[in-house]
Amino acid sequence: MNVGIVTFPGSNCDHDVYHVVKHACGAEAHYVWHKDRLPAGLDAVILPGGFSYGDYLRCGALARFSPVMEDVVAFARGGGPVLGICNGFQILCESGLLPGVLMRNASLKFICEDVRVAVTGHETPLTRGLVGKTLRMPVAHAEGNYFADPETLDRLEGEGLVAFKYAGGAPNGSSRDIAGVSGGPRRNVVGLMPHPERAAEAILGCDDGIALFRSLLG
């Protein structure tokens, strides 16, 4: 597997993702700067967490205009697996690859804590063999409150596109406790607010997140 990790000004989880992909999972990993184009031959693309462009205007709103996003959109629409984590999820929503929007947490406070996340919906490249399981991963965000209109929420649930839900209730006020959704022609685009790369090795206190990367890279 050959994975492109898109890096924007303000990304701060790109090295974590690179480490998990290359050293924990043994796949090839390449940083892709936001002003560059996606290289040929990629099998998957990951948009990591952070604060792209300082979250000015709105989280992810400026990053979606980066030159690389034209290629990311084309890659996704062609069926290529695309994963957005935290700020990457926000960027995927802003770019129209996933429905909904991530708003300020209901508490208006930054949340940094471990959460339990139920894997739901139909299988995606990220969740093969994991649907029905509950994983522990950390969240670290101020704008992780997922919102969509009732019709969109009904469609997402009805079509099995809600990939993750907070078990025991959303800490941020997300509609219907949604922690992540999927989309694209083959449910190949997945975004989630929790950080699986921060829970991918036993030395970190939990390695539940490695299962998601193994699914994506398998």
TrEMBL record:
CDD domains: GATase1_FGAR_AT (cd01740). InterPro entries: Class_I_gatase-like, PRibForGlyAmidine_synth_PurQ. Gene3D superfamilies: 3.40.50.880. Pfam families: GATase_5. It catalyses: L-glutamine + H2O = L-glutamate + NH4(+); N(2)-formyl-N(1)-(5-phospho-beta-D-ribosyl)glycinamide + L-glutamine + ATP + H2O = 2-formamido-N(1)-(5-O-phospho-beta-D-ribosyl)acetamidine + L-glutamate + ADP + phosphate + H(+). The active site is at 86 (nucleophile), 195, 197. The keyword Signal does not apply. It is found in: Cytoplasm. Part of the phosphoribosylformylglycinamidine synthase complex involved in the purines biosynthetic pathway. Catalyzes the ATP-dependent conversion of formylglycinamide ribonucleotide (FGAR) and glutamine to yield formylglycinamidine ribonucleotide (FGAM) and glutamate. The FGAM synthase complex is composed of three subunits. PurQ produces an ammonia molecule by converting glutamine to glutamate. PurL transfers the ammonia molecule to FGAR to form FGAM in an ATP-dependent manner. This is Phosphoribosylformylglycinamidine synthase subunit PurQ. It comes from Anaeromyxobacter paludicola.
